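Researcher: Following up on the earlier apo prediction. This time include the ligand. It's flavin mononucleotide, with the SMILES given after the sequence.
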Amino acid sequence: MAMRFEELRRLMISDRTVRRFIENKEISTETLGQLVELTRYCPSGRNAQPLKYRLVTSEEERTLVYPLLKWAGYFEEWDGPVEGERPAAYMIQCLDTYYGQNCLCDDGLQLEAITLGMRTLGLGGCIIKAFNSVRLSEVLGLDDRYQPRYVLAIGYPAEEVVLEDMSGEEDADFKYYRTPDGRHHVPKRQLPELLL
Ligand SMILES: Cc1cc2nc3c(=O)[nH]c(=O)nc-3n(C[C@H](O)[C@H](O)[C@H](O)COP(=O)(O)O)c2cc1C
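Model: Understood. Below is the ligand-bound prediction.
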């Protein structure tokens, strides 16, 4: 049955960034493959489809990847999820430079497709741009031909995220924050502010 607008809207509302996970709840490579398969149906500039994914699931590789990531830049006192709350898997989105040096906005479109797919499976994740790309390529033995563009951290969520409507004032604070009850809050601008 075709998805209705309200279903899509609710899915998008629920598709929030999660940074604490049930680390020992494994995610199969088959599931990760199904998520990557969704990217086949994304639009692609020049239809070059230059993005590929390196899956990271083993404990050994996850241990190598984790220290190369920077989590939640606004949380100066938080270095990222502690052991037991770390991602159960990662996807490294790479540009295959054989097809060009530029992927236009293919990267973001594909990440959105994957994270929405993750939500439908009860998974959560964090798109990460702040990472040590050189070291990541080294530890995963990536060929120079593949340039890591994003790391997607994936797992079953172990934190609650709450959307907050922003006030509409031009100087309203857009920084996400955490309350003492452990909940993560994400301010979002409201529709009137998005329309010029
Ligand atoms: C392009 C992009 C880069 C991001 N890079 C990071 C990052 O390096 N580290 C991190 O913890 N979160 C990162 N995030 C997650 C954002 O902080 C998050 O999307 C934002 O706070 C809004 O929360 P929401 O995804 O729940 O709407 C990134 C998100 C995007 C779209």
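Model: Strands lie at 51-56, 89-96, 124-128, 146-155, 161-165, 177-178, 184-188.
Researcher: Noted. I'll compare it with the apo version next.
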